[in-house]
From TrEMBL, chain A:
InterPro entries membership: 2Fe-2S-bd_N, BFD-like_2Fe2S-bd_dom_sf, FAD/NAD-bd_sf, GcvT/YgfZ/DmdA, GcvT/YgfZ_C, GcvT_C, GCVT_N, Sarcosine_oxidase_asu
Official protein name in the record: Sarcosine oxidase subunit alpha family protein
NADP in keyword set: no
KW Oxidoreductase (keyword) present: yes
Species this protein is from: Pseudotabrizicola algicola
TrEMBL record, chain B:
Protein name: Sarcosine oxidase subunit delta
GO molecular function: sarcosine oxidase activity
Biological process (GO), any one: tetrahydrofolate metabolic process
Alphabetized Pfam families for the sequence: SoxD
InterPro entries in the cross-refs: SoxD, SoxD_sf
Native organism: Pseudotabrizicola algicola
């Protein structure tokens, strides 16, 4: 019901929205919850387990009941708190966890079965038979017990993430936070003030308090205006600080577009990481309820929420209201309601010595026993002086006291301290380095207390920042003491609810204790109390108080469960903003990328790179046809392929040769200028790190080549070795991978093609290198080969890469050659027995690949000591071999090798296959594999078995070099 | 978590690559007995308290850093360049 003249909504801006298919009206400034209350919608959801009708309980982020699905054009957001969701034109929301409808939910039968569904029910009931769990029980339970649903489609909404840095982060813009921000801002500090609400002010907007003799909202407006004028202040509305991390780093979620109609390019949310030198937590406090029979009936809500709905949104959930409290904080709410024309039937105050309230009936020492009205509160019964009475009301406001929002002070393992005076947990001092707590979050509940502690927290923070706070004049405000007599649950029959979101009752907690789950952490897991999306914000303290009572311990001794980030739910989409699809990882493109795509080459990912798989010709229907043709082309004529993805590291200095001797197993210092050498690198633990060539371009100038896969790894390794072990050595290096485009030219006609491109015959011996001029551009020529044919690699600065690629392609084609892709490159190197990271996969030694002689005995190198240890060499190790199937059969990488006649069990596996390909040169499938004592087994027949892909083939073990074993073609 | 790189200043941990214990800096000399290599390669303390480990400022200056930190409080006590201050200056 809407109350005329109340609230901060904009009555000139009506808004229509839909809830469960019906159209309703509200105003700009409403939340979905306040608009539903205005429209007298009482039941907004069904409970998690028993499907009980539930209404709105709170007016804030702690809401356990009013969770709805918000349906947008591009997404569907489940478990949206209606108390946080702002109303906008065209908003579509649906209630959750009911079928077929909110009013008639078939699964409400669970509520009748409640005696059987107590804590631990699932654990006790669905244990047997064990195999039924995954197939039957779990799906059934999940269907019955649940929250909102996802759309099942990609969320096409935009999300952002951002960083911010400041001197002082103030969390919460209620009286304490506003005061802290004001004091710090006036002193010139760089301040970020975050508030989770659309409108800063906190409870100053929700209660009809006074500051300096005028309505508090006027003071809020003045402070906000001053802060807005200061360039050193950033006010972040709709931004919830969700987590505290090491070194004063905070996570915060901003609702950028969730409160308005979707529009293109407007992000829905932004996840902020805020680095603050100091912080002030002014997050306020959350009101807690009191448990009694059926206290979950729609219409029972927090007393402070009643005040918020009345004063901020101009709505009340009933014409006749009662309040049930154990402290004084409901009194102002009662007066506000009276003044607004709402009938306050009575204040039921559990304290026998409670004060009177002029004009309102106060039942002192009274407790509510039961609420009635399944689809909306009709009546409460209460006892006073042992006598039962009934009261007809539509709404009951509850206040069991206030819990300071200590959450963020606990994220770095801090534990809150129990305060007997406040009957609440308060933050442990110093729990978060650099953070001070002010206002209700620190247990200062009066307005004056909030303002004073906010100012003091700012002053102390400024001092720590080396800044002086100016003179601070505190505005005048009420400073009433907080008087409370703890009351958690009213003794009596029936089910009294603690955790509304997960349907946990007082009896469930008592049962947990009775069954031995006496630790608060065990109780939580056994009952699921506090494990719903609200994380028990309105129920945790009451639940552990009930547990303390059941176990005969004090609350302080019982302690709390662990508070972990996030404070409120954070969508994965926001945390991973930008990381979907192509944003998942950087993409690296060759200079030849477009030219390759122009020729219809499918591109494959190689690390971050995209490389052409093969170059289809008209008439070819499979990749194999193209691949076989490209392999034959290289073997018979000439092929060109882009090898720029290989890592290139430029190394210079008088100690460069000495450095290479340390990182490579073999010796480089003896290599003449103008020559290239193949090198092997080990990790310090003796296993192969990488292989590649290294060219001596000048006396003190080298160019190292790494594999594509290990380029970053090798750079990191070189940095480590040089910085950790080569202090004072004169050697410097830099990655030049992106600086050069490099093309391999291979085949019997390779020399002719290079001659055609350069304008003269290349006069280079095998493993030689030289500077060349390619059509006026300074480049480099290397005579190296990864195919087994006579091969050259021609490098030019990146900006000439595409032009040279197109030029070489055209020249190759006139000679009967052409381009080849990754598939052919792979077959060529398998035919030649050359290894890649499929073979050097991290558990391979130089011995395993037959290169132990490359570990020089004359010098130290990284990994030398470990490589010589027992077990790193010898017949027990699996060694690189070639495999050739006896019949024309497909063989697969990942298959295991077995001796003939043994059982196909893991213990009998004698090796595994690392690379396979079909060789058009040898007209056979070929594989590279590691086989136990393999070098001594050439000629043997082994069984190749891949159970995943149904392959079982006999193969001959061979030398890994299938093609041109003497290397005559290379050196031609 | 933030590390103060001697060259780049305070930076978020996402810029750094974690390697392992600072023990890796004490490489045995050539010919050292197997026990020394075993210790160097495999044996690590797992202290609740102050520890030293190696971080690589991969998305920054590429310095290898020796970080002294407390595994219990997460306090960063010191960040030094493994190449030494002079070498770090030179690389900058």
């Amino acid at each position: 019901m809407r109350i005329d003249g109340k609230g901060r909504i904009d009555r000139t801006r009506p808004v229509t929205f839909r809830f469960d298919g019906r159209s309703y009206a509200g105003y700009r400034g409403d939340t979905l919850a306040s608009a539903l209350i205005a429209n007298d919608v009482r039941v907004v959801g069904r409970s998690f387990k028993y499907h009980r009708p539930r209404g709105i309980l709170t007016a804030g982020p702690e809401e356990p009941n009013a969770l709805v699905e918000v349906v947008g054009p591009a997404n569907q957001t489940p478990n949206t708190r209606a108390t946080v969701q702002e109303l906008f034109e065209g908003l579509v929301a649906r209630s959750q966890n009911r079928w077929p409808s909110l009013g008639f939910d078939l699964l409400e039968v669970n509520d009748l079965a409640a005696p059987f569904l107590s804590a631990g029910f699932y654990y006790k009931t669905f244990m047997w038979p064990r195999r039924f769990w995954e197939g039957l029980y779990e799906p059934l339970i999940r269907r019955a017990a649940g929250l909102g649903r996802l759309s099942g489609k990609h969320d096409e909404g935009l999300y952002e993430k951002a960083w911010a840095h400041c001197d002082l982060l103030v969390i919460g813009a209620g009286p304490a936070g506003l005061m802290a921000a004001l004091v710090a801002a006036r002193a010139g500090a760089d301040v970020i003030l975050c508030d989770e609400s659309a409108e800063p002010g906190g409870r100053l907007l929700a209660d009809e308090g006074m500051i300096d003799g005028a309505p508090a909202a006027e003071w809020v407006a003045r402070v906000l205006a001053e802060l807005a004028d200061l360039p050193n202040v950033r006010l972040m509305r709709r931004t919830t600080v969700t987590g505290v991390y090491d070194d004063s780093t905070f996570g915060a979620l901003e609702r950028v577009g969730l409160h308005r109609s979707p529009r293109p390019n407007l992000p829905r949310e932004c996840f902020w990481r805020i680095v603050a030198k100091r912080s002030v937590l002014a997050a306020g406090a959350l009101e807690r309820g009191i448990a009694f029979q059926d206290n979950d009936r729609p219409g029972v809500m927090m007393a402070s929420a009643l005040a918020t709905y009345l004063n901020r949104y101009g709505v009340v959930p009933g014409k006749r209201v009662a309040l049930f409290a154990n402290n004084d904080s409901v009194r102002a709410t009662a007066r506000s309601l009276m003044a607004a024309g709402v009938e306050v039937a009575a204040i039921l105050d559990s304290r026998p010595d409670a004060p009177d309230e002029p004009g309102i009936v106060v039942h002192k020492g009274a407790v509510v026993q039961r609420a009635r009205g399944r689809m909306g509160l009709r009546e409460i019964s209460f006892t006073k002086d042992g006598r039962a009475q009934r009261l007809e009301v539509e709404c009951l406001g509850l206040s069991g006291g206030w819990n300071p929002s200590v959450h963020l002070t606990c994220h770095l393992n801090g534990r809150p301290r129990w305060s007997e005076d406040l009957a609440a947990f308060v933050p442990m001092e110093g729990a978060v380095p650099g953070m001070l707590v002010a206002g209700a979050a620190g247990g200062s509940f009066s307005t004056h207390g909030c303002l004073a502690s906010g100012a003091e927290a700012a002053r102390a923070s400024l001092e720590a920042l080396g800044r002086a706070a100016g003179a601070v004049e505190l505005p005048r405000a009420e400073d009433a003491p907080y008087v409370i007599a703890p009351l958690w649950a009213v003794a009596g029959k029936g089910r009294a609810w603690l955790d509304f979101a997960n349907d946990v009752t007082v009896k469930d907690v008592a049962l947990a204790a009775q069954e031995g789950f006496r630790s608060v952490e065990h109780m939580k897991r056994y009952t699921t109390q506090g494990m719903a999306p609200d994380q028990g914000k309105s129920s945790n303290v009451a639940a552990l108080a009930v547990l303390a009572d059941a176990t005969g311990r004090g609350i302080a001794e019982t302690g709390t469960t662990t508070f972990r980030p996030p404070y409120t739910p954070v969508s994965i989409a926001a945390m991973g903003a930008g990381g979907r699809g192509a944003g998942f990882a950087p993409q690296r493109f060759l200079t030849s990328d477009q030219a390759s795509r122009d020729r219809g080459a499918p591109m494959v990912e190689a690390g971050l790179w995209y490389r052409p798989s093969y170059f289809p010709k008209p008439g070819e229907t499979t990749w194999r046809e193209a691949c076989d043709r490209e392999v034959r082309m290289v073997r018979e004529s000439v092929g060109v392929t882009d090898v720029s993805t290989l890592g290139k590291i430029d190394i210079q200095g008088p100690d460069a040769a000495r450095f290479l001797d340390l990182v490579y197993t073999n010796t480089f210092s003896t290599l003449p200028v103008g020559k290239v050498r193949y090198g092997l690198m080990l990790r310090e633990d003796g296993h192969v790190l990488d292989d590649g060539t290294c060219a001596r371009l000048g006396d003190q100038h080298w160019l190292m080549t790494t594999t594509t896969a290990a380029a970053g790894l090798v750079m990191r390794h070189l940095d480590f070795v040089s910085q950790a072990f080569c202090a004072g050595w004169q050697v410097r290096f830099a990655s030049v991978t992106e600086g050069w485009a490099q093309f391999a030219i291979a085949g019997p006609k390779a020399r002719a093609l290079v001659a055609s491109a350069l304008g003269h015959a290349p006069d280079l011996p095998f493993m030689g290198c030289a500077p060349v001029t390619v059509q006026g551009v300074a480049g480099r020529l290397f005579r190296i080969s990864f195919s087994g044919e006579e091969g050259y690699e021609l490098a030019v600065p990146t900006r000439y890469g595409e032009a040279l690629f197109r030029d070489l392609t055209a020249r190759a084609e006139t000679m009967g050659g052409g381009l080849y892709g990754m598939e052919a490159l792979n077959v060529l190197r398998i035919e030649k027995g050359f290894i890649t990271h499929a073979e050097i996969h991290g558990r391979i030694t130089a011995f395993d690949i037959g290169m132990e002689k490359m570990v020089s005995a004359k010098k130290d190198c990284i990994g030398k000591a470990a490589a010589a240890r027992p077990g790193m060499t010898g017949p027990a190790r699996a060694q690189l071999v070639g495999l050739k199937p006896l019949t024309d059969s497909v063989i697969t990488a990942g298959a295991h090798l077995f001796a003939q006649g043994v059982d196909l069990v893991r213990e009998q596996s004698a090796g595994y296959v690392t690379s396979v390909g079909y060789s058009p040169t040898l007209h056979s499938h070929l594989a590279l594999a590691f086989l136990d004592n393999g070098r001594a087994r050439h000629g043997e027949t082994v069984r190749l078995v891949d159970r995943l892909r149904g392959v079982d083939v006999l193969c001959t073990v061979t030398d890994p070099v299938f093609h041109d074993p003497k290397g005559e073609k290379l050196r031609a | 978590m933030r590390l103060t790189c001697p060259l780049c200043g305070p930076r978020d941990r996402r810029e750094f690559y974690y390697y392992g214990a600072a023990d890796y800096l004490a490489r045995p000399a050539e010919g050292a007995p197997p026990e020394a290599w075993d210790d160097y390669l495999h044996l690590r303390d797992n202290p609740a308290g102050v520890t030293q480990d190696l971080w690589y400022h991969e998305q920054g200056c590429c310095s290898w850093l020796k970080v002294t930190r407390n595994t219990v409080t997460h306090e960063i006590l010191a960040v030094e360049s493994v190449a030494g201050a002079d070498a770090a200056e030179g690389r900058a």
